[in-house]
Specification:
The complex is a heterodimer of chains A (327) and B (337).
Chain A (H helix, E strand, L loop, with lengths): L2 E5 L4 H12 L3 E6 L11 H4 L9 E5 L5 H11 L3 E4 L6 H4 L3 H20 L6 E7 L22 H20 L3 E6 L2 E2 L8 H13 L6 E3 L5 E2 L2 E2 H13 L6 E3 L5 E2 H11 L8 E3 L17 H7 L7 H18 L1
Parallel strand pairs in A: 1-2, 1-4, 2-3, 4-5, 5-6, 6-11, 7-10, 8-13
Antiparallel strand pairs in A: 9-12
Helix pairs in contact in A: 1-8, 3-5, 5-6, 7-9, 7-11, 9-11
Chain B lengths: L3 E5 L4 H12 L3 E6 L24 E5 L5 H11 L3 E4 L6 H6 L1 H22 L4 E7 L22 H20 L3 E6 L2 E2 L8 H13 L6 E3 L5 E2 L2 E2 H13 L5 E4 L5 E2 H11 L8 E3 L17 H7 L7 H20 L8
Parallel strand pairs in B: 1-2, 1-4, 2-3, 4-5, 5-6, 6-11, 7-10, 8-13
Antiparallel strand pairs in B: 9-12
Helix pairs in contact in B: 1-7, 2-4, 4-5, 6-8, 6-10, 8-10
The chains are: A alpha/beta (327), B alpha/beta (337).
Chain lengths: 327, 337
Amino acid sequence: MPRALITGITGQDGSYLTELLLEKGYEVHGMVRRTSSLERSRLVHLYRDSKIYGQRLFLHYADLDDPTTMRRVLMTVEPDELYHLAGQSHVGLSFEIPESTCDLTAMGTLRLLEMVQDMRKKPRFFHAASSEIFGQPAQMPQDENTPFAPVNPYGCAKTFAAHMVTIYRKTFGHFAVNGIMYNHESPRRGENFVTRKICRAAAAIQLGQQKDLLLGDTSAKRDWGYAPDYVRGMWLSLQHATAEDYIFATGKLHSVQDVVETAFAAMNLDWRQHVRKDNRLLRPAEPQRLQGNPAKARRLLNWEVSVTFKQMIEDMTKTEHAQLAGA
Amino acid sequence: MSKKALVTGITGQDGSYLAELLLAKGYEVHGIIRRASSFNTQRLEHIYSDPHSPKHKLILHYGDLSDASGLSRLIAKIQPDEVYNLAAQSHVRVSFDAPEYTADIVGTGTIRLLEAIREVGLKPRFYQASSSEMYGKVMEVPQTETTPFYPRSPYACAKVYSYWITVNYRESYGLHASNGILFNHESPRRGETFVTRKITRAVAAIKLGRQDKLFLGNIDSKRDWGFAKEYVEAMWLMLQQPEPDDYVIATGETHSVREFLEVSFGHLGLDWKKHVEIDPRYYRPAEVDLLIGDPSKAKKKLGWVPKVTFTELAKLMVDADLKDLQDQLAGKVAHSE
């Protein structure tokens, strides 16, 4: 049975990846941080299944800034594949906590690479890089050869990490992949991300639990995909014969305004009556023009997206609605 | 009142030349030094005065780029007008042996310093010592301010991070923050493990019969080598501009280690081929390509032009090392001057 180790297993991507790998017959290990509130809502359906947890799914306490523990877990598990998804992943927040963003995102990646360096049987390594490494690129859409030019502390840290991954691949021959992930959403997206915030608000407003929604710049456009598709891309990239960097994106742009309109329409609401602008939510240096070209992933990995933007936002809003109505 | 500058990495080659320059311009110069059990201030001894003297304008503080609270406290206390971030684990080959430490100081250290500045609420002008190593596997020749980066060592990856985070603090917070992308710059004060200095010290030792062989790595690697003393002037000039910006500081010429050997051995009438042996241990795991900087922008906007030529540089370094060693052998106190 192949063994995988996931950092960031409690996150959106980690939980979908866990499901995918279990389905493919893997034994899955995850690193989790100790917190006083047991925040593993995304894994709870697996965690409570006694046929899975403790049988094919194992969680280990460890933290990216605790190298000794991390090393011990890695050496004990001896995974065939290592998916490194953990990071301080919120761009806006990276302006508030830039130092720990750098420490976890960049230094954490480097620490893992150094540990892998010391392993006799080196796992294949997937690093979840981000489209934020491109910042405000001159070239549109971006591909694997577009120069990195980040414009926020999160993007700078991811650039740092992606460069290190490349160094370890080219210098030491590690099977190490950068997946340059464009925005990817789902009902499990963190609640402080804009898509989730909008879908949740539309559902709550429909149920009369909320009156209106404050948003920053709604003209900002993103290349938004569906998270389960993106974790399939991660897995595919480690099954390929060679280690490469890949863009994972839809290649299509939609604005925050499109999210608003789709989500409110799914709830049969008129967004104009509920959405208000709030300039405090504007980011200091707002990246634009991030649109990925997934041709290489399509060509080498046969990777395709399975749902449209509209389907995804509708699904997210309806899931919120069902959850809020049940609560 | 005189302007106040804070220099990290003040005990290094560039830090010491910069401290001299700033003192000559009437600045009060503050430097951050790490505590070490052996003295690490040799390069500053000649400009350091008694702290009790009224003319005391060079002030050293204990601190470290890995110590965020210490940085905040120092910036709050000093209230500098200009901050020069020169501190680093600056040896590329060593960065493959100690990548985490290198990344922590060279990369994360910069964000700690920028955050300390932001936290204290000051807006000093900020200089970030960026490096030609960021170009690594070069995307074009010569390299300019718009050439994309392709780092090839942990050191270079960390420098790329610091470059971008500096740009980011300029664009996000309006900080007068500039990157000087400095190509190799050497001097008699260059660290002894860097190839130029390793060579000129060996030339002096061979000339005086104290050494016979010199072991080197890849002598065909080429660099754009300038004189450090001139490069620190460019740093200062960048912070005097009305607008912050990024500049390539280079000579625009490239020379191989082999050429450096020829000039420096030849200067004392020696034949390098009789003394130099290749040791693959000194090879880098990944070598950088042809690094040649195009300093046109610095020339145009800062009026900065390098004057000391490659040959002059090699010779002045050999002369200094020869004098050092002679002094040492004669029992005089010696330090790199």
